[in-house]
Amino acid sequence: GINPVTGYGSGLMQVDSQHFNELARYGIKPEHLTTDPCMNIYTGAYYLAIAFKKWGVSWEAVGAYNAGFRKTERQNQRRLAYA
Fold this sequence. Notes:
three-stranded antiparallel beta sheet, 59% helix, mainly alpha, 5 helices, single chain, 3 strands
C-alpha cells in the first residue's frame, strides 16, 4: 500500500518503507520483506510489539502500527481512526 507521507508498505504486514534504514542495520533488505513471508511477518510483529509496549495491548496500538508512533495530537487522531 502507498502511504502519502512516508512511502509505501511491503508484504503481508505492510511494513512501512520509513523503517528500511533501521532494518538495514539488521541485514533486512526491502526485497526480503516482499519475497520472504516469514521475515515480513516477523518484522511486522516486531513493530507491533513496539506499539504494544508504548500503548498497551489495545486498538490504539494497532492504530499506531498503521498511522505511526509520533506522540502528537495529529498522530493520535490518525491512530484512533485506525482503531
